[in-house]
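--- STAGE predict ---
source: upstream dedup step, 1 unique chain passed
mode: sequence only
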Amino acid sequence: MIKSQESYASEPLAKFHARMDPRGRIVLPKTVRDIFEIEAGDFVTLLVRKIKLNKDAKEIHVYASFKFSGRVNDKGAVVIPKHLRDKYMIKHGELVEILLLDHGKPEDNRVHTIYTYIFHV
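--- STAGE serialize ---
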């Protein structure tokens, strides 16, 4: 019999890539919204990474990252605040990596959903 040990880690709830639209929006994938029951009007905390792909070398280079909270609209989009787009020079159509860190309902005082990953080795 194989004996299992548990270990704990903090992990993002989801990680995906998106292209920013002309209005500074990125869309949370429907699968992610469905899994975590994220609806229009809910708040999410995201870590955004400005990246460049080197497909030949199979590398992803991270040039900047920042965290913010925003409200999800009826199409599953969240606006990256203009001051952050300007500060990190993120342009329309640019590929970014998004990590979903947290989510919550508007009636909550703050975004505070915490998931703990338990690894059975």
